[in-house]
Amino acid sequence: MGQALPRPALRPFLPADTPLLASIFVASIQELTSDDYSAEQQEAWASAADDEVEFGKKLAAGLTLIATMQGSPVGFASLRGNDHIDMLYVHPSVVGQGVGTLLCDALEKLTAARGATHLSVDASDTAVDFFKTRGYVAQQRNSVTVNDEWLANTTMKKELAPGGAKT
Q1: Domain 9-164: CATH class, spelled out
Q2: Which CDD domains match (predicted)?
Q3: Residue 29: CA atoms inside 13 Å, Cβ hemisphere, count?
Q4: pLDDT digits (tens, 9 = 90+) for 35-62
C-alpha cells in the first residue's frame, strides 16, 4: 500500500517567516523558470529577496498566505490591493502536489468575499499555463526591467462570482 502524501494547509504570514519565504522565492525562480528565462534574468528576478527586510515589508504590505506541509512552509501567495495577485511561489520539491492550487483558491475566495468582481495577476511565462487552466484570460504582454535585465510577463484576469463562488 502506498503512503498518502501530506496535505497542504494554510496560515497567515508572520514576520518570522521572511527568511524561509525568501529562500522559497529564490529556489522557485532558479529551479522552475529556466525554460523561459535566462540565467541573468533569473538572477535579477531573484535579487528581490536579497534584502530580507524589504522583502518582509513587501509580504507584510498585503494579505500574504503561507502554504505548509507537516507544519513547514512550502509556498506562499500575496494579494496587492483588493484584486491583484502580487506573488505566488511554490518550493520546487512540492510542485504538482496542490500547493499552488490551494493558495490560488484561497486568494480567489477571499477576493470575491471582499466584493471584488475579478482577480488579476502579472504571470511569468512559466506560470501562464497554470493560470490559464484556472480560467484566467490573457489581457496584455508586459516587459519589466529588473536590475538592467528585461523580463516578460502576461497580465491575466479572471472574473469572480459574487461571494467567492468560482465562475
Answers
A1: alpha beta
A2: NAT_SF (cd04301)
A3: 22
A4: 999 999 999 999 999 999 999 999 999 9
